[in-house]
Amino acid sequence: MTNPNKIEAYFEQEHNFKKALLKLRAVFKQTELIESFKWNSPIYTLDGKNVAGLARFKNHFGVWFFNGALLKDAENRLHNAQEGKTKALRQMRFESESEIDSEILQAYLQEAIANQKKGLVIKAAKPVKKLSIPVKLKAAFSKNPPLQKAFNALTPGRQKEYAEHVGSAKQEKTRLSRLEKATPLILEGKGLHDKYKNC
């Protein structure tokens, strides 16, 4: 089925919210957004970028704003579907057609369009890997608190260099030797490879 056919099939399906979704669609049609079909739902784009979409569930339906966290939400209508997990996505949720205020929705859509034209987006943060401190380094910290303090003051990149340098040694004596050589550098606040860098 081609994209336009999928869109029409979506809006022709019989369900409790059919009339309400058609009302929302009519509001979207008054904008410059392009209607497409992704993730089994109508999605509205500008210059190929997702701006908003429609979705229906068992007990409610709504409008998704892909960068909804940037919207002013003057009417306090937006919800974060997964608090603490969802950074940008926000939804305007309805349980019946009578709750739809076309003027309010149009204002939110125009703001979302304006934000998209300005290039405003919320980028997903890259997951931060927890640094794994080798056993030998941990033992050295417990014997030498100033060493741990100096290590904690290093940049995450330098901490990683030292942790991998000490932890990657296959033999015990090599780990100890590496730790012994690294200790004065850590205490001086230097990185493992600083002497090779132009700084």
UniProtKB/TrEMBL annotation:
Enumerate the transmembrane spans. none
Matches recorded under Gene3D superfamilies: 3.90.1150.200
UniProt xrefs under InterPro entries: YdeI_bac (IPR016786), YdhG-like (IPR014922)
**Residue ranges of the YdhG-like domain?**
18-113
Q: Name one Pfam family in it.
A: OmdA
Write the protein's name: YdhG-like domain-containing protein
Q: Which species is the source of this protein?
A: Leeuwenhoekiella aestuarii
